């Protein structure tokens, strides 16, 4: 159905391929305890950002459902609702990317590869 | 969906996939085949297109308008399929890039732009289809079509 098709669009998050809960592999593969704590704190912030976006997307979904139900709604009604969501998604993506590069700065290449190899096994 | 992340290593991509699976199951449930396994994005889109066709056939009594509307829906379904496949490819690319320690921020930004562009093209197609169909319906017909459409998500 039409709404299902739109929902498919809405359900893909800002950092779908970027946000993982990596606490377990970080504890396993990163040697320095203080660094482990820092990485986990950053990772939690990233997860929180992503969760907040999911929540806002749910709100936008309700608003878009109302627009969809109105036969006379215009393309600009949709565009307005989607523009707010696009801005929100872009902001979240930037924050998630910042977090990703902060975590990267705290890990060696070897640690990074071990952590993400563990993630890909679970994916 | 966030509660699904209580275990470690559950990525956002998986959460999205789970959302899609739930959706596919709901759509399948309405079609009377809830015991089928969860659908891929492509299969889900095909199921949606079939469901839309059925709903139109059951709602629009005027043969001429029905034919016009089904032609619009069919015409755009194939194009939507291509966009969904493109989005899935870009997602996989993002996962690979993320796993690369040496990936630069610019690479992520460029890929992000491509994802957003693919997403907007897909969205435009759906909205364009929706507008064209809405124009050909009466208020009562649209109410029937959207109430079935939205009931899936209001549960």
Please provide a brief summary of the model.
The complex is a heterodimer of chains A (123) and B (155). Chain A is mostly helical and 123 residues long.
What does this structure look like?
The complex is a heterodimer of chains A (123) and B (155). The mean pLDDT of chain A is 89. Chain A has a domain of 62 residues. In chain A, helix 1 runs antiparallel to helix 3, helix 2 crosses helix 5 and helix 3 packs antiparallel against helix 4. Chain A is built from 5 helices and no strands. Chain A has 123 residues and is mainly alpha-helical. Helix content of chain B is 79%, strand content 0%.
End-to-end CA span of chain B: 15 Å
Shape of chain A: elongated
For the largest beta-sheet of chain A, the strand count, sense and barrel status come to:
none
Helix percent band of chain B: over 70%
Gross geometry of chain B: elongated
**Which structural class matches the secondary elements of chain B?**
mainly alpha
Topology, element by element:
The complex is a heterodimer of chains A (123) and B (155).
Chain A: H1 2-11, H2 23-29, H3 33-69, H4 75-106, H5 109-122
Chain B: H1 12-30, H2 41-59, H3 63-99, H4 105-135, H5 139-154
């Amino acid at each position: 159905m039409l709404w299902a098709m739109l929902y498919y669009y809405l359900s893909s998050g800002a950092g779908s391929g970027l946000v993982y809960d990596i606490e377990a592999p970080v504890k396993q593969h990163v040697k320095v305890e203080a660094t482990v704590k820092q990485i986990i704190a950053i990772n939690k912030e990233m997860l929180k950002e992503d969760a907040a976006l999911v929540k806002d997307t749910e709100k936008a979904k309700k608003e878009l459902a109302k627009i969809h139900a109105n036969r006379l709604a215009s393309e600009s009604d949709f565009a307005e609702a989607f523009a707010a969501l696009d801005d929100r998604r872009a902001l979240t993506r930037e924050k998630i990317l910042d977090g990703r590069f902060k975590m990267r700065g705290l890990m060696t290449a070897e640690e990074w590869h071990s952590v993400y190899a563990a993630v890909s096994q679970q994916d | 969906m966030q509660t699904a992340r209580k275990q470690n290593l559950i990525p956002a991509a998986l959460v999205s996939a789970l959302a899609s699976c739930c959706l596919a199951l709901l759509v399948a449930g309405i079609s009377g085949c809830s015991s089928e396994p969860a659908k891929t994005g492509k299969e889900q889109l095909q199921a949606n297109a079939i469901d839309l066709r059925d709903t139109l056939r059951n709602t629009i009594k005027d043969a001429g308008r029905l034919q016009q509307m089904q032609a619009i829906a069919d015409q755009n379904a194939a194009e939507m399929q291509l966009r969904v496949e493109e989005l899935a490819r870009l997602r996989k690319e993002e996962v690979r890039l993320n796993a690369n320690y040496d990936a630069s921020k610019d690479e992520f930004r460029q890929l992000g732009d491509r994802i957003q562009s693919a997403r907007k093209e897909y969205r435009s197609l759906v909205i364009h289809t929706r507008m064209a169909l809405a124009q050909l319906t009466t208020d009562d017909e649209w109410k029937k079509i959207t109430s079935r459409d939205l009931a899936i998500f209001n549960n």
